[in-house]
Amino acid sequence: PIFEGLPQRGGRGQGCDSLAQTQRTKLQHRRARINQQINKEMRMRTGAENLFRATSNHKVKETVALELSYVNSNLQLLKEELEELNSCMEPTHHGQSSLNDVPMIPLGLKETKELDWAAPLKVRRSRRWCSDPAMRAPSRNKAGLELLMEYYSQLYFLDNRFFSPHQNPGLFFHWYDSLTGVPSHQRALAFEKGSVLFNIGALHTQIGARQDRTTLQGVDCAIEAFQRASGAFNYLKENFSNAPSLDMSSSSLNMLVRLMISQVQECIFEKVLLLGAQSNFLAYLQLAQEAARVEEVYSLVHQTMAQPHVKDYVPFSWTSMVHVKAEHFKALSHYYAAVALCDCPSTSEVDFPEHEKAFLQFHVSTPEGPAPSLLLRDQEARRRLGKAHLKKAIIKHEEAMRIHSLCKILRKMDILQEVLSLAHKRSLNKYSEIDHEEDFFETAEAPDIHRKWQPLPILPGSENRIQNKGAWRSSSLKPLSHSTNGWKEVVKRRETLVIPSIY
């Protein structure tokens, strides 16, 4: 048989944890149940609406209208339950709180239905088809990614060997929207490929979010995972069009790419913080600029989430979390600027040229008071500017805490509240430490800090190349493991997804 030895869309095997009761797997099972209920309610609503339009009996219309109100109410409750499920952000570890404990935003996998390829391909399977699709519960590790990548690679070969560009496999591919649970089904194989690719990116986000970012190894793994997630979503955005569901639309994918890059930038800041063994002037300036860069990218994501096509789709907890992080990291940038000015000794003559050059490029606008060359040598002037930075840091910390308090789901995250409170108290303590009773002057406005910018590579969706065996061994088509350009070899033409048919 042609599929002998190849992993199928369904079935338990390596990379599948359909029976493992991990926290994320339990959430995915709940997601599957909610999606099925949404599908059922939408079918009932469609039938009721058709009956309402078709009947002329007044009593029947009243009964149907009442039933529609119940169905719409149930759909709203299911939508709220799914939104709360999508807002689950697990902490990195359960030890003592630190500034590296801010939760990341993972993306849930798209749910699907079991699929039987035997009929359209008119081949016999050599093994029994299992009832639990492995696609629904891939393990959050290298094996789970290989499982999804291998199936994606098989779809590419099926598309090239068995189906012409104008021929479909004769199957309906059923997938549920990742955030809303709205079902979609199509006959286009591109829909199946795009949905699998979306899940590859989503699985990378889950792997990145579960890393212990209090260690260098955990931070490095998180950086790579979020970069590869952004690569998968970016590839999907550039190579698939006419998305059948909102989660695969261009605007949503653009938001996801920016969100993943922001989380990469946050991990880079955490790595710099972990590596900051040298508590000197230049090291603190670098931390401040890295924090300012994180604030900038999160502000851009927040603006993207506020756009009309995305605002009503993205969970409110996501928008709130991104806004909180933007304010939080802006506060951190001003805090580390104050530490550099107040805690580090006056610049020596040997280091002065290097420090002056870095300080001249540090602020967006020249701060009030003496010239930078004089300020670095004047401890009192440094204290005053540091006090101005701390004042701005405290204001931004309080704004982050205010935004956090407005979201019911974020208020339930004790770890996030502890991190925000810890950072706020630290700034208050530092302000009290440098504040003098004889300070009668009004604190000047601290200028914004230049972002430390460096281009971030968007990696392909997986570093692991697939070793396809069996059916394609003698084929002239090259499997993904042998391609020279990685992902670019997989799809050589732009895929077009058909306009969806919704239940």
Automatic annotation (TrEMBL):
GO term, biological process aspect, one: signal transduction
UniProt entry keywords in alphabetical sequence: Coiled coil
PROSITE patterns noted in UniProt: BRO1, REM_1
Identification of the protein by name: Rhophilin Rho GTPase binding protein 1
Organism of provenance: Laticauda laticaudata (Blue-ringed sea krait)
SUPFAM superfamilies, alphabetized: HR1 repeat
Superkingdom of source: Eukaryota
Span of domain BRO1: 103-437
Keyword Coiled coil (UniProt): yes
Gene field: RHPN1
Residue ranges occupied by any REM-1 domain in the UniProt entry: 17-91
PANTHER family named among the record's database cross-references: RHOPHILIN (PTHR23031), RHOPHILIN-1 (PTHR23031:SF6)
